[in-house]
Design brief:
Number of helices: 3
Number of strands: 7
Largest sheet: 7 strands, mixed
Helix content: 25-40%
CATH architecture: 3-Layer(aba) Sandwich
Radius of gyration: 14 Å
CATH topology: Rossmann fold
Shape: globular
Structural class: alpha/beta
Number of domains: 1
Distance between the termini: 23 Å
Order of helices and strands: EHEHEEHEEE
Bound molecules: S-adenosylmethionine
Strand content: 25-35%
Low-confidence stretches: none
Length: 139
């Protein structure tokens, strides 16, 4: 996702449903992202991710919230990552349309955003990564 999304030093990444936090830590550590923010509803995963962020001394650049992703703050995002479901992506469309800034890339693992036109689509083994551009991908 991070490779296909071309994440780099000028990016602020927001992972909606951040799981164990691996996208966040990898974005900052291996791809040089300025900052990464995650929203994770499950407390156990939030705790696992928090410990990992601290263990890797990334607290200054990686923050996670034990909160519903529909409450996420997208103001600073230049990249939004999703590994959810087609249904969740559908429900997210109004939020993304309202809050994602022009030029934000929305990178979705395996699940399309139905009705939007991906700027790019790449296959990795059995997986597909879709990259959407704001606002060009909106239809
Ligand atoms: C397939 S995992 C992806 C984890 C991570 N983004 C990655 O790519 O490695 C999806 C995560 O989204 C979380 N999730 C699902 N619905 C959510 C919601 N409404 N708010 C926050 N997190 C949610 C799940 O608990 C799960 O950890």
């Amino acid at each position: 996702m991070l490779e296909v999304g071309k994440v780099g030093k000028d990016d602020v990444l927001v992972d909606l449903g951040s799981g164990d936090g691996r996208i966040l830590t990898t974005a900052v550590k291996d791809f040089g992202a300025k900052a990464a923010f995650g929203y994770e509803i499950r407390e156990d995963l939030f705790k696992t991710a928090s410990s990992e962020i601290t263990r890797q001394s990334l607290d200054a650049r990686v923050k996670i919230f034990n909160r519903d992703l529909f409450q996420a703050d997208l103001k600073e995002a230049t990249v939004v990552t999703l590994y959810l479901t087609t249904y969740a992506n559908e429900r997210l469309k109004p939020k993304l349309r309202a809050e994602a800034h022009p030029k934000t890339r929305i990178v979705s693992h395996d699940f399309m955003i139905n009705g939007w036109k991906p700027a790019r689509k790449e296959n990795y083994n059995e997986h597909t990564i879709y990259v959407y551009s704001v606002p060009e991908s909106y239809m």
